[in-house]
Amino acid sequence: MQFNPITIEEKWRKEWAKTNRWKVDLHNPRKPYYNLMMFPYPSAEGLHIGNVYAFTGSDIHGRFRRLQGNQVFEPIGFDAFGINTENFAIKSNVHPAPLTKKSIDNFREQLKKIGALFDWDFEIQTNDPMYYKWTQWLFLQLYKKGLAYRKKADVDWCSNCKTALAAEQVTAGKCERCDNAVVKKELEQWFLKITDYAEKLLKNLDTIDWSSDVKTVQKNWIGRSEGTEIEFPIVNSSLSIRTFTTRIDTIFGSTYVVLAPDHVLVEEFKERIINIDDVEKYQEETKEKTDLERSDLTREKTGVELRGIRAINPATKSEVPIWIADYILKGYGTGAIMAVPAHDSRDLEFAKKFGLPVREVIANETLCNSGKFNGMDSEEAKKKISEEIRAQSSVKYHLRDWLISRQRYWGPPIPIIYCDNCGIVPVPEEDLPVLLPDIEDFRPTGTDKSPLASVEKFVNTTCPVCKSSAKRETDVSDTFLDSSWYFLRHPSVGVSEKPFDPEITKTWLPVNMYIGGKEHSVRHLLYARFITMVLHDLGLIDFEEPFSVFRAHGLLIRNGAKISKSRGNIVSPDGYFAAYGADTIRVYLMFLGPFNQGGDWRDNGILGISRFIKRVWALGQSQKDASGSVSGKNDNGLEKIRHKAIARVTEDLEKLRYNTAISGLMEYTNSLGDNKEILRLVDIETLLVLLAPFAPHITEELWEQTGHKDSVHDQSWPVFDEALIKEKTITMPVQINGKVRATINVPSGTKEGEASSLALTQEQIQKWTEGKEIKKVVFVEDKLINFVI
Ligand code: ANZ
Ligand code: ZN
Prior knowledge:
binds ligand ANZ, binds zinc ion, five-stranded parallel sheet
């Protein structure tokens, strides 16, 4: 039969859809295995080859586990709310609701062609009221636990996206959505107290099997720092400055104190500060700068002394000046430091510029100029000094609370009501969802209010407590809240009275294998862990970590360059699917490089894979004609080759080393081709099962054509016999002109080239061959090697 991948794939896709082929029994599974990939944001441009890359890698894993006897639940959905979609809607002047629907419909059709195990009955759309009802419910649980709060703060603001952002959404001082430089704006916003979980988020990293670089990124983002809090009393005042230091051992060298420019004490001492005009001017200038700029070590230090007030160093008891400087951040530690110019390079630069005293307190690794602590090493001094001056040890984190309110339209309204009598009132759970009203002008206003604020029908409501007229919160929540719990919803899609069914959740979660991009290391992956911990502490689930195993996939590039819209080198999979079929594209994508490192898509590489698939097809055809199987002792090593192939592909699949697994399959296919005349059915069967996770359609077709009534996808993963694949070692005589002069140990089957190079390194042989020309090599595999000189 002629090979026509397009018809074959269509045939099987139809068949699978008709019988809902990949459905699993969620209530009574044999060996449940939850295989999840990060769900896509349905962009209007359609599925992108990078999505196909990630999904294929994940689906191969799911199919492999399925063949190993697991019941694999592999759902898919759409992260459909959020600024991305909304920004595109603004640009193209369409409403986000119809735009999202169109994008999802398109995505779904494209996704159906990649040959994945998706069970479409469990699809999620985060913009569906049946979904966001529970996102709002989640917010209410956090609120009731004191983990959601409203606070006025200097927040990161993107004037292009016209909204506040979370710290995690600011990369190198820029908005992660649009690359616009963010500014600070003082606004009242909703925060989730992720910092309460800093310690657990850090500690639990040791208990989960995740890509190690992602763990490191999280660890650094959480940024645990062990130090000391110590008060510097202000002269002629009952107040003091609380500083945070990791180097209390250097306190005798602290010759001045520095506050963040916006530290509350500046306001407090306004009357006593002589140069308050300069100070306020400096405060204004600081507002223009991002935290990133302020922390830049290469920037020249700036600052202003608070003239009129001084502090006392509690160790030396001497008076020291107080400064403000922008390199001290309000949000970290206590927002104030004891400066030690002799031992901190930032402080030294500052001291040099402003002529402040530098006092060395550590020399030759022990303390000096430190009174009775002289001669101690730093560790001992830290303890002793802390005791002496009653300093408190303190742990600080760089992690900030998660700012979740957005002054935008396309998201779930935050379910809060403001009442003049009752204050902040959560919407009663039975009133959820608070529906996002369908409004014409969805564009962000650029003020600190969402467009919902001008929709009177939405804003005006009655207080659930006192029944007087009240107003709704008009901000919506961040998309990352939508995606922080979707893995819990998937198996419970259709459950209407709860966000997730306790029994089903117990059966299926935590997720066994989660695959996705590294770029979400500190956003989605951190938030999802936090929300899972909260739900655990609320007694709603019995695990703290959502993803037992997480593997980050690499990035797909094209012709050596990053694939991006701005470069105009976006690859749409549609044309390739239509030309080669999904199987070839799946195998090609996975062959490009190690899955965890990514690959370089080049159109001309597809042909090689296409040829490989055709060779498999031809083998299948020849097997049909051969109609039977030769077995017996003289199998020309086929049984051993078969076991070796199983061993190699199995091991590679366990480790997601898809590219080397494919090489193994290619070699196996070639070996079978070389032995066409004596092929046994089991050889072809083995090849088809091993290849099935990669190329699900063609293997199914060949399975049928080779006389099987069942499905290749319902077979058991073949096992290999350790003894069979062990190499036998041969002790091979090495001759010079026919006389044995040495022996070498080589694995059975070693070829001439290898045997000869090994033989020529033997001392006894070198004695004979040195300075001589080797005229001829006689080699008999597994028997002998003879050099004629
Ligand atoms: C005295 C000292 C002496 C310090 C020395 C360092 C070296 P990490 O590791 O990041 O926690 N610091 C404290 N709060 C700060 C703030 N809000 N903005 C900028 N810098 C701040 O760093 C802690 C150290 O960073 C603290 O220890 C403090 O400087 C500074 F030889 O205090 B140290
Ligand atoms: Zn932006």
